[in-house]
Amino acid sequence: MRVLVAVLLALAIIVAQLVYGGLMRTAFSLPAYALIALAGILGLSAVFWKRSVPPQPGAVCATLVTAGYFLWRALNSPGQDLALFYTFLITACGVVYCLCACVVTSPVSRYVFVALLALAALGQVVVAAIQFSEPGYYWPLPWFSEQMRAWYARTDGTGLNRGHGIFLNGNHLAWFLNGTAFLTLGTACIGRAAVWVKIVLAYVAAVCLAGTLLTLSRGGLVGLGAGMAVFLILSLTALGIGARDRRLAILLVTLAILTAVLGGGYYLFSQSLTVQARASRILEDTYRVSLWPAAVRQAQLEPLLGTGAGSFTQLSRRLRDDSSEGDDTFAHNDWAQTMADFGYLGLVLITATFFLNGKTGFLGYVDALQQRMAVASRPQSNSAAFGIGALSAMTAFAAHSFFDFNMQIPANALLASACAGFLANSGVAPWGASGKRRAVRWLTGVASCAGGIFLLVLLFRHAEVEANSLRAENALIQGDYPLAEKLATDALAAAPRHARLRRILGETLLQDAATSKNPREQFVLSTYHLRRATEFEPEERWNQLMLAISLSSLRKPQAAEIAHIEAIRLDPGNPAVHEYYALFLEGIGKNADAIRTYETSLILPGAKFSGERLKALRQREKSSQKTR
Q1: How confident is the model at residue 265 (pLDDT cuts 50, 70, 90)?
Q2: Do 167 and 296 share a domain, yes or no?
Q3: Which has the closest alpha carbon to 497: 527, 529, 473?
Q4: Which DSSP string corresponds to 587-600?
């Protein structure tokens, strides 16, 4: 049962990676959530095990309280689309944590889990190496989302090739490779596996570390450095506990490994102009820093409980300091985004949970080494091996989270949850442990089963809707308006408050009106759905902009102007909302106002057509003045 659950959890992480890591759309992670739901229900079997090692009560209880609060906040957040995404994610992470704390506790099951991740990591690095060395944008899989293709299937314009594997960004791949590297490195160094297994795991760890360099992720390198520092400290701790007759040899081997890693990194740095160019920009990243004040301002709106799961995506548009051509979906700082979305209470809870699991993991690591030394002369222990790997990985994750948003990516958040679960249960019974602690095994097993059942309920209610929503979005982007209309209409029958579906259907009707036999009826229906979308998600500026265009088509200039102004208020730094408002003003004959609005849009980065329209409008104004 332990091995089966370990396989299901590893496959869930890998399957989520296959579809953009599950980023931004609930539909991408549905297969992974189904695997986790099945594993969670199987986790109830832990309740009936009499000889299994129970997890540490303090860490488990703190984690369950934190997960419960986050889940409650997600269920009570505005915007069904974003709230549902985080409801799925939080539930799945809680199930994975419970299963790794109470079921995947034997050395065999954990070796299987790590081995499957190692295979996935090798495949990711192969793809990353091709991306790093070849010009253009290499993507080995079909594009399941046309929106993701439009956003990511292009170079970043800097001339730097970054390895990102089958993730959408190198920062996401660096997180996975760092976690896998430390898990395999720990088992290779102090695990009790056969020599050939240790050699293979050490090779995988080296490949993962090299892959992190290929990603050119500055946050990933910071996380790697932090994790390596903790790994070295814990290795010295192991030497202090035992292996008195082999300390010099072990120390020399450790130094040799570190020298090889650092030497390989320096060689890659010296041979690659791409790496040197990226490294020269480490202290020049003003983009991330400009987003963090928006998160602070957002937290001030609702300090205690936050403004809701995923609300940074919309609120940051009017709270950020400067204009940005990009649409800042995430704060590029998981700690800051947690504070903004879930309030200071959420930040305190997640911080306390991190430290409690870290403390439990360290004590379990030391306890495992001491118990091993009581029966042998060498500090080699499978429990300690997974402990050192998970502690180093969690340190890398915590440091990386200050610069990126990997906890918003299901595949990577699930991996972090698994490592935290490893820390909550070292796999060996602590000396002097009371039998009363076994009650926590019941709690964890029941919690994993309850989470699995809840995931199944969510899948039953929302899986088809989310899948059709993705298909409708793809059809809209590809111009297949009849298919988009049918899919969106069918999905809305089951989820009438789904704001993104309303926007997709409204935009589809608006785009298809030109070929319709009754364009006005199309505009009326489009306006209805877009107005409903603004009611369900009032902070989404795209809904307001589409509503304004639809109202203009209905020849309702006053209502259209109100919607245009609202779109600008929601996202004043976006040039598109100013451009479309100027186009509207031009259409109703307010040329002077249109000129000023076009000029405003040109100040912002990313304006598309303002220059041409402004030039034509000025020439027209000059011609009319000469005529008069």
Answers
A1: low
A2: yes
A3: 529
A4: HTT-HHHHHHHHHH
